[in-house]
Write a structure and sequence with these properties.
CATH architecture: Beta Barrel
Largest sheet: 5 strands, mixed, barrel
CATH superfamily: Nucleic acid-binding proteins
Shape: globular
Helix content: under 10%
CATH class: Mainly Beta
């Protein structure tokens, strides 16, 4: 069985990062994805969906360090649902994406090089242009081990072209 979510969108606000009593960091933020389509009358309509994103430990620390409102990112994770009671005792249901990987898609301002996890641009190509293998941008990821309840994190590394969903 598979529970995998892949989103590319923009942050609606800066990540809210908290540190739990055990020292683990957790980041929460909203991510907007856009879709354009033609309606019955042939007019273009743009639809925006908002997704609640949760990042734990290593990823939360990286989110706090690099992500800001408006940042464009690629997020990979799993879909979760939870139920809680609000202050009035009413049951509330929340759907969230628990991220296990993210990649920044923005370029750092005032720099000709890509941000950690960003894509190279035409300006980054060697001159004169020769056919060379373009390295893919590093991904920032963390994985959990369910049996031990601990998190191991991969350091920033290479991602193969075959790992991209497009």
């Amino acid at each position: 069985m598979v529970n995998k979510v892949i989103l590319i969108g923009n942050l609606g606000k800066d990540p809210e990062v908290r540190h739990l009593d055990n020292g683990a960091a957790v980041a929460k933020f909203s991510l907007a994805t856009n879709e354009s389509y033609k309606d019955k009358s042939g007019e273009w309509v743009q639809s925006t969906e908002w997704h609640n994103i949760i990042m734990w430990r290593f990823l939360a620390e990286r989110a706090e360090q690099y992500l800001k409102k408006g940042s464009s990112i690629f997020v990979e994770g799993k879909l979760t649902h939870r139920k809680y009671q609000d202050k009035d005792g009413v049951d509330r249901y929340v759907t969230e994406v628990v991220a296990n990987n993210f990649r920044m898609l923005d370029r750092r301002e005032g720099s000709s090089s890509s941000v950690p996890g960003g894509f190279p641009s035409a300006e980054d190509a060697p001159a004169p242009y020769q056919e060379t293998k373009v390295q893919t941008a590093p991904a920032i990821s963390g994985t959990t081990t369910a049996s031990a309840g601990t998190v191991t994190s991969q350091s920033v590394g290479e991602v193969e072209d075959d790992d991209l969903p497009f």
